[in-house]
Design goal:
Length: 573
């Protein structure tokens, strides 16, 4: 049989998807969707391992022609022609691509994927990708194992680029050395942007490594031009330099929008795991099984500088009116248990919101990790949250936190302190019973208050707060997880909350009294409520007394009855 010589002229084979699956089903890839009807016209001349064949293909996906020639030394030559062939349907990728017309030639030696070498040339007259029909794609190069060396040209009316180089994805030998010149690409026409956005650039790369954490080499993008709605933006060159060796990792990234410098003994990609383990020394956020003595000493430092380029506000963030960034710096030494991070954003105006002097500071020693986030002001036409401070520390398996806001007259608008501990998978939050302030008034909190939460849900125990005649009491009725929740309110003044953030005292005033029951039903809550707000004012407009009643013990029903002496008309400008 191996030496038999066959001559098969113009053999016509008519079959279908069902027949092919019966004969060769297990050998057909799950990613292939065979056409329903298939007609083949085959011309074959030669032996099983040395032949020349020409096959015409006609099916409901389109038409094609395949010429294959193989000699006794495993040298081969293949010509393929496809005419408007639905490759997307064939490969079950219709949402990504669809019809393609091309002519391709391949010649080489060997059929083992690890050792095969082939010279390929392809001319793609059109190919449908991402809901766009590309034209005039040329490929000329050499393929061997997982490596391609050659040229790719695209000359479409909405995208023109030229690629020349090497791409090697062989495991442990990855190498990306190429020159890419994008003369222009209309991202809107190519369905990568909803807006009129066009881009052009020149890129050179010489990088080795299979993952970001293993990359070594340099890359540069120059002549980067972005056009948005007819306006051109010229960005400085983008430079990337990376070194990843044992105990030596450096990464530099420079661009018009952001500069990043990193130097350490571990890869930047390993930082999340390393920092998670380090923080666990102070509070057990995560389950880490690796023992301390098994870990190598880790050190790193970094610097991030943001830049205010016009493209930020005019293209990416149209509501960004003012952006005055600062520098974010940090360092880490696992042996000394020292983590330092600090950063500053001087001023940001986004839409109607303005934020001033947003600062972060983190530092640690062998016993504790201190953190502080502050902002001198967050404002818009309605609110003014001044001198906001969130600070605390992690130590001895506890989180200590303090949230406060102080106005320009040094009055304490808000001050809440709490502590969080963890027992197995249950977190427990306890409010400081002696140091709670709302609008410069001290509130007493029950000493035995706590909130527990975790994978079992949450539980609130005796969260009782009082100030003079005002009282708020929140508790899980049966003191168990995911229980019915009762909220009792007595003479609570709305202004004690609204004035924390508002610019003046006119936003909301009134006294709240009543009871609310959140009744657990399956995985949701129903509501039973009977509450009143007396002497209600909204922006200095007297509303009067408002009564709200709800009897909805099931989560699928939500009916509320309210009684208000003033008719409220809502209009939209």
């Amino acid at each position: 049989m191996q030496s038999a010589y066959f001559v098969i002229p113009r053999m016509k084979l008519i079959t279908n998807k069902h027949d092919v699956n019966l004969i060769a089903g297990p050998s057909i890839s799950a990613s292939v969707n065979l056409p329903q009807d298939i007609t083949l016209l085959i011309n074959f001349k030669g032996r099983i391992h040395s032949f020349k064949s020409i096959t015409d293909i006609n099916c409901n996906y389109g038409r094609g022609n395949l010429m294959a020639q193989i000699d006794p030394s495993d040298n081969f030559r293949i010509n393929l022609n496809l005419a408007n062939f639905d490759v997307g349907n064939l490969l079950k990728k219709k949402t990504l691509f669809s019809f393609v017309s091309l002519t391709a030639q391949a010649s080489g030696h060997g059929f083992n994927p690890q050792t095969m070498k082939a010279q390929i040339k392809a001319k793609v007259s059109h190919i449908y990708l991402n809901k766009y029909m590309y034209h005039n794609l040329l490929i000329n190069g050499t393929i061997s194992d997982h490596k391609f060396v050659g040229k790719i040209n695209l000359n479409d009316k909405n995208a023109v680029f030229y690629l020349n180089g090497l791409v090697n994805i062989t495991p442990n030998q990855e190498h990306y050395k190429f020159h890419l010149n994008v003369q222009g690409a209309n991202l809107q026409r190519l369905n990568f942007s909803k807006n009129d956005m066009r881009i052009g650039f020149d890129a050179i790369s010489d990088l080795k490594g299979g993952t970001i954490g293993k990359l070594n080499g340099k890359a540069k993008i120059s002549n980067l031009i972005l056009a948005y709605n007819g306006k051109k933006y010229i960005l400085d060159s983008v430079l990337i330099a990376s070194i990843n060796e044992p105990n030596k990792n450096k990464f530099n990234f420079n661009s018009a929008l952001i500069d990043v410098k990193y130097n350490g003994t571990i890869s930047p990609t390993a930082l999340p795991m390393e920092l998670a383990h380090f923080i666990n020394n102070y509070f057990p956020f995560f389950d880490t099984k690796q023992k301390e003595e098994e870990r190598n000493v880790s050190k790193f430092n970094f610097e991030i500088q943001l830049h205010n380029h016009p493209i930020l506000s005019e293209v990416f963030l149209p509501q960004l009116k003012v952006f005055q960034p600062g520098i974010i710096k940090g360092s880490f030494d696992s042996q000394k248990k020292e983590l330092k991070m600090n950063g500053l954003m001087t001023r940001i105006v986004y839409g109607t919101y303005e934020m001033k002097n947003l600062a972060m500071d983190v530092n640690s020693d062998s016993t504790k990790l201190n953190y502080k986030v502050s902002c001198s002001g967050i404002t818009n036409p309605q609110i003014n949250l001044s001198n906001l401070l969130f600070k605390g520390k992690l130590n001895d398996k506890k989180i200590i936190a303090d949230i406060s806001s102080v106005d320009e007259k040094k009055n304490t608008r808000l001050s809440i302190k709490y502590q969080i501990t963890k027992d197995k998978n249950i977190y427990k939050l306890v409010l400081d019973s002696t140091d709670c302030y709302l609008m410069n008034n001290r509130w007493n909190i029950a000493v035995d208050n706590y909130i527990e939460f975790g994978k079992f849900g949450f539980l609130i125990h005796h969260l009782f707060m009082s100030n003079a005649q005002s009282q708020v009491n929140i508790a899980s009725i049966n003191n168990k997880f995911n229980d019915d929740l009762k909220i009792s309110i007595n003479n609570f003044k709305l202004e004690d909350l609204s004035q924390i953030i508002e610019k003046d005292s006119s936003f909301a005033r009134g006294d709240v009294n009543g009871n609310i029951m959140l009744k657990k039903v399956n995985r949701s809550y129903g509501i039973i409520a009977n509450a009143q707000i007396t002497n209600l004012y909204i922006r200095n407009i007297p509303i009067g007394d408002l009564t709200v009643k709800a009897i909805n013990p099931t989560a699928k029903r939500f009916n509320i009855n309210y009684c208000c002496p003033v008719k409220i008309r809502v209009t939209k400008n």
